[in-house]
Amino acid sequence: MLRSIAVVAIAAVAALSASPASAQYPEKNIEFLIPFGPGGGFDRTVRLISPYMEKALPNRVEVLPRNLPGAGGRRALATVYRAKPDGHLISIMNSPGAAIPMLLGEKVEYDLAKFAWIAKIGAEDYMVGVSAKSSIRTIDDLKKLGRPIKMPTTGFGSTAYAAGAVFAAAFGLKAEHISGYKGTNDYIVGIVRGDGDIAVAPVSTFRQFVESGAIRPLMTFEEKSSMPGIKTVAELGHPELSGLAVERFIVGPPKTPANIVKILSDAIGQAASNPELKAKAEKSGEPLDYIPAANAKAAFDKALAVYEKYKSAIARK
Amino acid sequence: MLDSILLALQLLFTAKAMLFLALGVGVGLLFGVMPGLGGTTAIALLMPLTFSMDPINAMMLVGGVMGAVSAGGSVSAILINTPGTAPNAATCFDGYPLAQQGKAGLAIGAAQAASTVGGFIGLFTLIAIIPLAKQVVLLFGPPEYFMLALMGLAAIAVSTGGQFLRGLIAGAVGLMLAFVGSDAVSGDIRYTLGSDYLWDGIPLVPALTGLFAISEMIALSATGGTIAQEQVKTRVTQVMEGVWSVFRHWKVMLQGSVIGTFVGAIPGLGGTVASFLSYTAAMQISKEPETFGKGNIEGVIGPEAANNSKDGGALIPTLAFGIPGSAEMAIFLGVLVLHGIEPGPMLLIKHEGVIFSLIMALLASTFLSAVITLMVARQLALITFVDVHILVPVVISAALAGVYALRETAGDVMLAGIFGILGYIMIRFRYPRVTLVIALILGELAERSYHQSLNMGDGSAAIFFTRTTSLILFLATIGCLLLPAIQYLRNRRRAGEPAA
């Protein structure tokens, strides 16, 4: 009796473990998690790309975006980390946001190295700006202030906070964060209002403020400046910070079979090169920037190395 | 600007736009009535649908939803003491007692009329203020936010419903609950009982559902019978009387609309704070504050005027700088982005037409949703004559399902249950729930803006008093606190005179 149960159990386990490797993937709808509430950049990217991913997948299934906000984005990642590695649950990931807790020595429920890295899909480069009414015109002016610079930003431990801290540390500036603003537009308006001196925020959000004459750009972290007359960080002597950005990666549960990762990665790649989607993404102000599975983890590690280097600046004071 | 308004009006009356508007209103009403689900969820779900539409039609759909949710939500608040959406929670206080007295029709009529008029006032204020929107937003920085939060917290003192000490205790509990979760400034995790569920703080919708719906259902099953205690035959009348009552109590209606517009314009506050503050303000100007909570129609008019006028207010920072004034606005911005319209200071300059079609859609939706609700009010109100043994399980499961659907977390359901028990204990021992809710919502803003202000002012609290706007708000707060004391003294003197 016991023996027959054991046989059945072994057979069941074998059947189960065999199924992910089957050629039929995807067998059912794919859930695409967004670790934040609706309305932001990560949400937009997933919602834009999902219908095109559907078209590019081998079987007719749906790709369903699902917002799973919570614990600063960690809830969705922990959910994927624990999910069955069959490719039917994936998530977009904020870099370096997902890694900051570890840099700060906090315990998280996932190990970034163990995720199945499916692709990188986009990035928003940072820039530095001041209010147009400010007397600060160059980065050197910041050094000459003779007091710590005040930097409105989102909460401690956020990507914007980290980017600001890295900027200040690299340029040898003493920074005082005024943290707790709810979003990027909020803290940019903070410097327009005079709550602080400078803001470090994505170029895409800054652009309209520059256009409307409220903000004066000082420097951009882009590799090639998209703002006329504004120097890049490399030109100002810090090439290692070139490309400092919020990046969007797509990950699946650890131990997802390589063939499934490839199917997903290819589908995302195909979607990203679809002219219709390209036009839509361009119009939404953030062109897609696709890197396939093979190089995704390396791209993440490269970005992370910068933050590693300035770990002490990001940490609690 | 006038051209855009006329053009938007023209667009509104095309068949396609009307169709999307009607669809939006329908979805909005439905999501409004369902406890837990609200405008945010509805717009998020409809977002993919707007992909293939042109932006104007998308605005009709979104505007239709936004204008209708609170109309739907007021119905559940009145009939079964379950706020359909968080901003309807304050309507429970007097709407539900009215339903218990068999006057559900009156309450629904008043709620709908107040919503419509409030919505109109909010939007007309918005249209008037649009040219100055940027300056208005720039007037309010962290020190001003702190003063506003303080003002709201001060309102606790006047909203204790005659139970001063109990009111303060409930307020203190609310404040303590507000500090659960990660500190918005330092990122420190506090009072989470070791679980990451509480990292983002006490979620508002499950908490309100528990405090109002679940607690009342517990109380109901203890007593039995039906919600309407006086079996006024099986007829629901007075709907039109309710509509007219709004104009008879125009002061409360106007005050509620102004509070709604103002609070709506402050990012991070939104409709729930607006309606609660409007409720306490209505109590404050009333000659018979002791009748609040026992079925005073003004307690329905105030919050309902506020929770619809807040949309106009919330659009001010949203349109001026792309800062969402409320949760719905955050998703609305997401819809704009999907249509290639980047929110920010250029929004109004580049896309005036789209924005005005949203405003027109909101105006139309506010009116349309009220008309629809009024038409079915009599049928809806029959629910108060259903035996509680049938009603209680249905309401509890619907409420908990709504709570679960919102974020798909079992923790939310448990939290709603815990707050349900807390709410029942508060009802039993006559602790006012309004003070707890106000403190719970305002605590986070007060703490965050206090820290930010100190950082701005190099650690000195002088910053609160050296800025004109902040100082004015501080003096206004002192005034609000002194008002009841002055009234009390004056009343006593007057009462004392004949005897003397």
The pLDDT mean of chain B sits at 88
The geometry of chain B reads as: globular
Domain module tally of chain B? 1
Please report the first level of CATH classification, the CATH class of the largest domain in chain A. Answer: Alpha Beta
Q: What is the percentage of strand-forming residues of chain A?
A: 15-25%
Give the SSE map.
The complex is a heterodimer of chains A (317) and B (500).
Chain A: H1 2-18, E1 30-34, H2 41-56, E2 63-67, H3 74-82, E3 89-95, H4 100-103, E4 116-131, H5 139-144, E5 149-152, H6 159-170, E6 175-178, H7 184-193, E7 198-202, H8 203-211, E8 215-220, E9 245-252, H9 258-272, H10 275-283, H11 293-309, H12 311-314
Parallel strand pairs in A: 1-2, 1-3, 5-6
Antiparallel strand pairs in A: 3-9, 4-7, 4-8, 4-9
Helix pairs in contact in A: 2-9
Chain B: H1 2-12, H2 15-33, H3 39-50, H4 55-80, H5 89-100, H6 104-129, H7 133-139, H8 142-154, H9 164-178, E1 181-182, E2 189-190, H10 204-223, H11 239-248, H12 250-264, H13 271-285, H14 298-321, H15 327-338, H16 347-350, H17 352-381, H18 388-407, H19 410-428, H20 433-456, H21 463-466, H22 468-499
Antiparallel strand pairs in B: 1-2
What does this entry look like structurally?
The complex is a heterodimer of chains A (317) and B (500). Chain A is an alpha/beta fold and 317 residues long. Chain A has helices at residues 2-18, 41-56, 74-82, 100-103, 139-144, 159-170, 184-193, 203-211, 258-272, 275-283, 293-309, 311-314, and strands at residues 30-34, 63-67, 89-95, 116-131, 149-152, 175-178, 198-202, 215-220, 245-252. In chain A, strands 1, 2, 3, 4, 7, 8 and 9 form a seven-stranded mixed β-sheet that branches. In chain A, strand 5, helix 6 and strand 6 form a beta-alpha-beta unit. Chain B is mainly α and 500 residues long. Chain B has one domain (2-493). Chain B has helices at residues 2-12, 15-33, 39-50, 55-80, 89-100, 104-129, 133-139, 142-154, 164-178, 204-223, 239-248, 250-264, 271-285, 298-321, 327-338, 347-350, 352-381, 388-407, 410-428, 433-456, 463-466, 468-499; strands at 181-182, 189-190. In chain B, strand 1 and strand 2 form a beta hairpin. Chains A and B meet through helix 2, helix 3, strand 6, helix 7 and helix 8 of A and helix 3, helix 15 and helix 20 of B.
